[in-house]
Amino acid sequence: MRLRWSKQKLTTLHWHEHEPNRSKTPSLLAQNIRPLQGARLVYLMGDGLKLPMLNGMGRTDRIDKWWAQPAVMGIGLTLAVLWTLWRVVFFSDHIDYNVNGAHVISPMFSPNVLEWDMFSGWDHPSWVNAAVLILWIPFSFRGTCYYMRRVYYRTFFASPVACWVDEPEINKKIGYKGEKRLFIVNNLHRYFLYMVIPILLIKWWDITHTMTFSNDGYGISGGTIILTLEAVCLTFYVTSCHALRHLAGGMLDRWASGISKVRGALFSKISIINRDHGFWFWISLVLVFVGDAWTIACSKGMITDFSLVLIGGA
Ligand code: FES
């Protein structure tokens, strides 16, 4: 059977030979393309759809705002990197504050391992801080994330920047080589997952510190709310990880009985939140910086945090 896309607007797919009057609405992509003047596309069963690509970086027949998402993501990631560099290298003060005796720490500098006994007495260089010692773990975890790979291939390498948009000539020359050379580190993602889980648990531990006030009361502050939001979103981000999903239910032929059944059920649950993995990636990332900005503002006295005692208190 032979299908032919023969309209000037690619919005209708006609079955020519056997059912000439039957039409179907094609993919969303077809609704976002410019009418092709005299273009004729031929789709042979089993061959896939051959789209007419315009040659030249960024050239396309799409008429939707295909560039908006990669542009916003590129700007977001660039700002995140610049803020992190500024904080870690140039402005590593004001990493925490106290409100009514409760301790609130910036998500970027947690855990503050320099306060741990094992590092006490270490006469470290002045450029060493908690972020320098710890941040490489979440940074590597995010950098090797499957979703993140999609983002940076699109935004920074334009490979391709969007569906049906032509890529730079150099990409065509080099071609996709897979996760090799520098990108081989992507294969370590599951190990970064193992390393990030303790950090996630410490984030929850940090929240308890924001709730313990000096008058033996327990309650909440602005810091509690922000750190809790960050920990919740980070938990969803980590638990929706593709590698964790595979760890839960992968490598099995069947989820029939016993432990495999439990693993299958876990796999199904993770699969539900895995669908929004990209959302959890961004929201948890944004909240790291919101938490850091909040900590700076409170620590410098620009904002006065509140403390609401809910239990106890003298
Ligand atoms: Fe994104 Fe694992 S795949 S965090």
Care to describe what's here?
- With 314 residues, the protein is α+β, with helices and mostly antiparallel strands.
- It has 2 domains: 2-54, no CATH class; 79-240 and 276-311, no CATH class.
- It is 45% helix and 10% strand.
- It contains 10 helices and 8 strands.
- It has a 4-stranded antiparallel sheet with strand order 3-2-1-4, with no helix packed on it. A two-stranded antiparallel ribbon has the order 5-6. A two-stranded antiparallel sheet has the order 7-8.
- Helix 1 crosses helix 4 (146-155) and helix 7 runs antiparallel to helix 10.
- The chain is globular, with a radius of gyration of 26 Å.
- Residues 1-26 and 36-44 have low confidence and may be disordered.
Total number of distinct structural domains: 2
Q: What spatial form do the alpha-carbon principal axes imply?
A: globular
Distance between the termini: 82 Å
Beta-strand percentage?
Answer: 5-15%
- Distinct helical segment count: 10
What assembly state would you assign to the polypeptide chains in this entry?
single chain
Ligands bound here?
Answer: FE2/S2 (inorganic) cluster
Structural class category: alpha+beta
Most strands sheet: 4 strands, antiparallel
Q: What is the CA-atom radius of gyration, in angstroms? A: 26 Å
Could you spell the SSE succession in H and E letters? EEEEHEEHHHHHEHHHHE
Q: In which range does the helix fraction lie?
A: 40-55%
